[in-house]
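Pilot study result, target chain (493 residues):
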Amino acid sequence: MADESIIPGKLAATEVEPEVMMPSSSNRLRRNSLGIIDISAATMANIGPAMSFYFGFGFLAVTAGVASPLTIVAAGIAIAFLANTLAEFSKAQPSAGGFITFVGRSFGGTSAVATAILVGVGYIVAMASVIAISGGFLSITLQRYLSWNIPWGIFTVILTVGAVFLMIRGVSISTKVAGFFFAFEITVLIIVSVVAIIKGGSHLSLTPFEPSHITNGMTGLAAGFPLAIYLFIGWENSAALAEETNDPRRNVPKAVFASVAIMLVSYVIFAYATVTGFGYNVTKLGNAPIPFISVADGTLGILAFLAYLAGMTSTLGALVAGTNSQARLIFSAGREGLLPSWIGKVDKDRGTPVNAIFVFVGIAVLLIGGWAMFHVLGSGTMDPINFFAESSTMGTILVLVVYLLANLALPVYYKKHRPAEFNLIKHGVLPVLGALSIVVPLYYLAKPGQPTPYDWYPYVALGVIVLAVIYAVALVRSNPSIGDRVGSIVADE
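Predicted structure:
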């Protein structure tokens, strides 16, 4: 009988099969630091209902018309489809890598690396808008009530430094602070909305919920859909906190669905109060700088002041909660070798991904500076509200691409790794509906004929995607073991 040690294709008896180097299990985030209330509050703080609604609803109302609350309902249903995808992935393989892990485990190492780039760039660009508006909104508030005319950039730097310090201290304390900010803003928003609705009781109607009052019918609904979807961005926050959450397979899905449901009901109430507060006049509503605050101002002066404070706490809560979650995505990618390994280091004393937080915030701040320089060289100074719209839109395009990939990945993942658990509805029909719901906002954000700089964004996004794929192919070719490292650290194992 031939000696197997010299048969082609066999390992010699004295040889040892090379081991795939996995991320160090000691380089982990601090487990059981958060409960379901923590991650639910952090998710809703990341959504930032005051911030998102203040600067988004006016455009939505002008686009969709008096019945714009129906557009929010449609967006909430679409987000629920996406929530199903995230929940099903989190039940099977909870991970700080979130979408990166889910897509990578479904389609392989190249897709994981490319997704890591898209996630990193998309969220950093989107978070730059939050960082800028935090200082911008404080400047607006102080100018209104104290007549102080201090450049918003100064406040942005101060607030960002404070937020970073808080996040480095630990995920538990920073998440609780973000949760406190959210609790304040949602309380104020509800109080203002209820008072405004009661005050307008004599002319209340169901007009905002009648499809016939959507401008241009289904076309208007579709055109307003991307704006309504943006109101919910951040709904996925809790997935990246899985490694630090107790019982993540149960708590992350619960937090995702609870957050989406609460935000949907809240936004419908805010939208109804705002539309009725303007007497169903969307032209007048669209011309208001911040429509919801105008409604608050028209009810009781103290409510307007509280609404400004709610806007401040909203921007700060979104800054802390969003960076906490999104920096963990690139941390996980660094830990697994999809991005430079030094990004995936954990502070041993506090259990926080310090390097990832610095990289995430640092690039976002540099982006704000570069964008401001572009404005100075072109049209003059940069307005933080305009930058918020511009930057958040660009980031949202890339984030939507990641959402699309995740929905396409879910049925593949379950068929590939858990075929016995495959459910036609949860793992087939719902992710397909989720993918289709993403195509609509992507189309309206990428279609030709938009004003500058929005007309550049589809090409910028396409460029980022191409570069991400090229980088991914080159990295995996030089290091084929990357595919085995994706998702190698499971949150509760």
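One observation from the pilot: Residues 109-146 form the longest helix (38 residues). A full batch analysis is planned for the follow-on phase.
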